[in-house]
Amino acid sequence: MKYLKPGIVCLMTFCICIVTSAQQVITSHKESEIKPRLFRNIPDRVTVTATKLFPLIALKAGQAANISFSDKFIFKGTVASAVSKYDGAIQSTVIRSADYPGATFTISRIKGQDGSITYKGRIVSFQHGDCFELKTENGQFILVKRNFEDMVND
């Protein structure tokens, strides 16, 4: 009886050690699941003039689009959808690429209640590991290359 409590404590400690050593660390993306890069020949930052973005909102579904972001990055495709919500407060256009397989360029114009207008955009392919996000820095539009895993949650 005198060794019953220490024996039970040792047995419980042993069981806990066995169970915890059986745990495996699960990473969200294994090395074998890394997706190929679609935009590897394009710089990490591409400055885009506003005059190339503004007309994209007016495009209609089925129209052809040819956007020359830079001399090394020309995005050709067809407008897959063009929608306007909330009395024109949010307008979005989705362009499906002809040159970059699986890639779509989504651009949205958002009008705030104070009358300010902001633009948001992304170029994403779900089969590839890189994508672009449209950012505004110092009044300039810039496409910034990002990893797909950082932008899209599984």
In short:
The chain has 154 residues and is of the alpha+beta class.
Report what the structure shows.
There is one protein chain. This protein is α+β, with helices and mostly antiparallel strands. It has one domain (35-151). It is 17% helix and 43% strand. It has three helices and eight strands. It has an eight-stranded antiparallel beta sheet. The relative contact order is 0.16. The model has no long low-confidence stretch (mean pLDDT 79).
**How many individual β-strands?**
8
Q: For the largest beta sheet, what order do the strands appear in spatially? A: 1-8-7-6-5-4-3-2
Unreliable spans are none
Major sheet: size, sense and barrel closure? Answer: 8 strands, antiparallel
Structural class, judged by helices and strands? alpha+beta
**Outline:** elongated
Number of helices in the DSSP assignment: 3
The arrangement of helices and strands along the chain is: HEHEEEEEEEH
Q: How many whole angstroms does the radius of gyration measure?
A: 25 Å
Strand content: 35-45%
The first-to-last residue Cα distance is 55 Å
Q: What is the average of the pLDDT values?
A: 79
Helix percent band: 10-25%
Total domain count: 1
